C-alpha cells in the first residue's frame, strides 16, 4: 500500500476529477485529432499572450470519459473582484478555440458550444448585472435563465439595447482573439503539432514552443500551485 503521495499522484487524481479517466476505447479520426489539437492550442496561445488569464498547467487531446476530446488545465485565480479588462481577457481566451478553428480550417465545429455559452453568459452579466456598459448605464438586473418564468425588470427597448451591447462586446472579443492568433500563427501551428505528437503537454513543453509568457510566470501569483487546479474543457461530443 502506498504511504506517500507525490506530485505525479496528485496531478493524476486532479485529472480524473476534472476530465474523467482516459477513454482508451475511443479512437479519433485524423481530422478530429487535428481539429481538437488546433482548438486547444488556440485557447492556450490566446491565454498565454494576455495578462489577465489564469496560468496554464497542462494541455491534452486524450479523450476522457466525461465526453471531452481535449482539455486545458489551469491554476485558478482566487480573485473575488474583476475589472472589465480582466473579464475581456477571459472572454478572449474562451473564444480562442473557435477562432483557431476558423483561421486554420476556414470552418467551425460544434466543439465550441460550451465556450460560446460561457462567453455569452459573461457578456450578459457585464451588460445586465455588473453595470459595465456605458450605453446601458450603472444599473443591475438579474440575468433571466431560459428555464425561469418570464419576469420583466426592464422595457423591451432596454432589452434590445442590452442584446446589441452583448453582441458588440463578443464581437470585439472575437476580433481581439483573431488578431492575437494572426500575430502568433506559427506558434499556434507548432503547439498543435506538438500536441498531435505527444498528446499531453505540460507547462515546460508550452514554454519551449511559445516562449516565456509576456507577463512573466503567472504561477508565482499563487503561493501553492499544487493546492488547486481547474480546467477549461472543450470539444464535447454530441
TrEMBL record:
It is found in: Membrane; Mitochondrion. One of its GO terms (biological process) is mitochondrial protein processing. One of its GO terms (molecular function) is metal ion binding. Residues 27-208 form the Peptidase M41 domain. Gene3D superfamilies: Peptidase M41. InterPro entries: ATP-dep_Zn_Metalloprotease (IPR050928), Peptidase_M41 (IPR000642), Peptidase_M41-like (IPR037219). In the N-terminal section; belongs to the AAA ATPase family. This is Paraplegin.
Amino acid at each position: 500500500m502506498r504511504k506517500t503521495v507525490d506530485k505525479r499522484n496528485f496531478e493524476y487524481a486532479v485529472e480524473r476529477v476534472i476530465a474523467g479517466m482516459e477513454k482508451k476505447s475511443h479512437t479519433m479520426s485524423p481530422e478530429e485529432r487535428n481539429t481538437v489539437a488546433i482548438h486547444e492550442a488556440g485557447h492556450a496561445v490566446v491565454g498565454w499572450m494576455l495578462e489577465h488569464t489564469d496560468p496554464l498547467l497542462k494541455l491534452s487531446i486524450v479523450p476522457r470519459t466525461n465526453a471531452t476530446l481535449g482539455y486545458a488545465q489551469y491554476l485558478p485565480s482566487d480573485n473575488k473582484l474583476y475589472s472589465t479588462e480582466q473579464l475581456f481577457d477571459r472572454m478572449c481566451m474562451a473564444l480562442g478555440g473557435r477562432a483557431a478553428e476558423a483561421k486554420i480550417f476556414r470552418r467551425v465545429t460544434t466543439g465550441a458550444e460550451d465556450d460560446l455559452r460561457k462567453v455569452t453568459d459573461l457578456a450578459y452579466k457585464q451588460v445586465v448585472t455588473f453595470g459595465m456598459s456605458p450605453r446601458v448605464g450603472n444599473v443591475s438586473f438579474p440575468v433571466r435563465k431560459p428555464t425561469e418564468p418570464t419576469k420583466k425588470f426592464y422595457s423591451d427597448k432596454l432589452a434590445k439595447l442590452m442584446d446589441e451591447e452583448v453582441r458588440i462586446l463578443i464581437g470585439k472579443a472575437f476580433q481581439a482573439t483573431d488578431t492575437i492568433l494572426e500575430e502568433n500563427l506559427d506558434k499556434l501551428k507548432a503547439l498543435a503539432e506538438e500536441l498531435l505528437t505527444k498528446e499531453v503537454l505540460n507547462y515546460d513543453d508550452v514554454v519551449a514552443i511559445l516562449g516565456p509568457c509576456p507577463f512573466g510566470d503567472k504561477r508565482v501569483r499563487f503561493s501553492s500551485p499544487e493546492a488547486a487546479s481547474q480546467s477549461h474543457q472543450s470539444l464535447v461530443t454530441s
